[in-house]
Amino acid sequence: MCGCADRWRSAARVWRLLVPADWEDLRVAYWRLLYHLVWATYEREPLLISEREALLYRILGGKAAEIGVFVHATGNARDHVHLVVGIPPKLAVSECLRQLKGASSHALNHQNGPFRWQGREPVRRDPAEGDCVRSQSETTPPRGVGRCPLRVRHQ
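RE: above sequence
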């Protein structure tokens, strides 16, 4: 015999000593996917008053933790919200946004009366002018109006 079998058994014993049985748990991937998410209230109405603001951030923080998203910074004006978040690769950005908007809208509706977020912009169809999408300038306030201070969460 050439001794290959003995060397193989010896290597297998060393492998079992060095690597625990649950070796798949040792695989760790590093990711840092930061997104600046911004969304507005329905028709940019100034609905985010101070009474709703505290509830909004509590709900957003809780839901973000529940789905595995880390909130780095938050901010808002009376008509829109800013979030800087770390979204894990296993979660689609659209799904994260759907979860955050849904949870916050549901809570704000039940706590403080009617509330909803802006959905997709409607498309105007005018045969004379051709198809066109409503411009953002129709719904966006001028620069400098309604500044949004970000509240940064330090790690």
